[in-house]
Amino acid sequence: MKEKSFKNKLYHIIFEAETPSGKLFDILLLIIISSSVLCIILESVQIIKLEYIFLLQTLEWIFTIIFTIEYLIRIWIVRKPIKYIFSFMGLIDLLAIIPTYLMFIADLHHLTVIRSIRLIRLFRVFHLSPYVRGGQTMLIALRKSLPKIVVFLMSVVLLVIVLGTVMYIIEGPSGANTNGFDDIPNSMYWAIITLTTVGYGGVVPFTVLGKILASIIMILGYGIIAVPTGIVSVSMVKNNDNITTITCPNCLHEGHRIDSDFCNKCGKELNS
């Protein structure tokens, strides 16, 4: 009974941030993750690596041991360890520690870059109370807006194909100078960088009609950039639920209302 009570206490500290202990744990975890990623960045600079290699490797092992202990504790306290291990964040937690141990077994220094995946763990910042509502609201808004965004992106792809084909007809091989519009794929590439207002300048139209079309695409690009922002913003305004970091101990679903007694995904009791 005492073990179960202790595991429940650890669960609320590690997986949630509704208590002072939980908030403190998340803050410490963020500091450690940030420090670890900083060490990885510094290690890629040859001058720093040659001079401080021992210090960087020592810190790396300290961080890896801390992450390993945290990972094992997470597996121990959850009701369904397999579900956590194969969850997105569970796999990220595992990939954050494996490269260091592989380096110890064999000379696989090219795998050290995988350690930078720890940066993804910084998404745990959404557990801190000032960011909980904003982070969860944004995620829910993105989920609700996904079908509209997919339709919008498909429309943009079709538009790029049409514009690229038209530009190929105008500036293509039939003209005196192709200017890089040698085929439809190259013309589509030009349409993409023009529509997104990137404009590298490597491929430019020379004919008057081509320049007119390019001007229209540039103006159209500003409007297209605003569309997905508007779609997501509307969904965010509609979603004003009082969301917390309360996590279901059964399915690990996060983001329940403050007054919820049961999980809105699996239906299990939240405080059992």
Secondary structure elements and pairings:
Layout: H1 2-15, H2 20-43, H3 46-77, H4 81-85, H5 88-95, H6 98-105, H7 129-171, H8 184-195, H9 208-238
Question: Tags for this entry?
Answer:
272 residues, mainly alpha, Four Helix Bundle (Hemerythrin (Met), subunit A), Helix Hairpins, 2 domains, 9 helices, 65% helix
Molecular structure report:
- The protein has 9 helices and no strands.
- Helix 1 (2-15) crosses helix 2 (20-43) and helix 7 (129-171) crosses helix 8 (184-195).
- It has helices at residues 2-15, 20-43, 46-77, 81-85, 88-95, 98-105, 129-171, 184-195, 208-238.
- It starts with a helix and ends in a 34-residue tail after the last helix.
- By secondary structure, the protein is mostly helical.
Task: Provide a brief overview of the structure.
The chain has 272 residues and is mainly α. 65% of the residues lie in helices and 0% in strands.
